[in-house]
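Comment thread on ticket #2218

A.B. wrote:
> Attaching the input chain for the structure job we discussed in standup.
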Amino acid sequence: MSYEVTFVPDDGLYCPEIGGWSLDKYRMLGLYASLFSTGMKAKWERRIYVDLYAGSGYGKLQNSGKIVQGSPLIALTVKDPFDKYIFCDEDEEKLTALEVRARRVAPTADMVFILGDCNARVDEILQAIPTASPGHGVLSLCFVDPYNLVGVRFATLRQLAVRFIDFFCLLALHMDANRNYARYLDEDADQVDKFLDLTDWRDRWNAAKWDGLKFPKFLAREFSEQMCSIGFLPEYAMKEVRSDEKNLRLYHLALFSRSRLAFDYWAQVLKYSTDQTSLF
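C.D. wrote:
> Ran it. Output below, let me know if you need it in another format.
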């Protein structure tokens, strides 16, 4: 079982450049979204897909110039489509292009487009997710794909977690946190505070580094423990993604769920994704 990304012709709409390593991300999301949407179809009355950094729907690979479908169109074209789609992005040009592409690909789909920073618009995103009731279960899959460590704050995920929801997260532990290590450790810096929704992490880091723990792994552990604190299962299998040019560590992909079945799906995704080391 695997998932192959879809290459598409240029349609003349806005299409930002992306790195080749994004293909790994899209393959993993595509496989997990397919397993999720089909596996949950008979178990929940409504399945909702939420994309907090939806983008334009297309991305142009830097080296080849080929254009690939992004996460919103991947979710829209799974075998058993979700019952509702919520797309958020703070870039109006991207969101406008996405709406055209999404309605072209899935003209009858129930879609909501929210313009703005997902952290500032979280109340609107929550309102767009249908409310569950006895005999009418609602389960959501939220793709969290920020550009940097604090693109999505833990406080935002905590607010969304009042619903039945799984999070498929990109954690920029190397491409941002490790590269900006000195700046983020400054006492006046609050980026990590927002990422973790904690202010006392420096004390634990000062102890952890003397035990040989690397900063990215420390942040991953702290973030995972924060997710556990709001009811998610303590799973630490994160997939490392490296650049396709210099093989540099970039980020980790992680799944957070309250269901053991979700991690059975995640195990299949890890099995069939490209062979890169898990963080834990």
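A.B. wrote:
> Thanks. Noting for the ticket: The chain has a mean pLDDT of 90.
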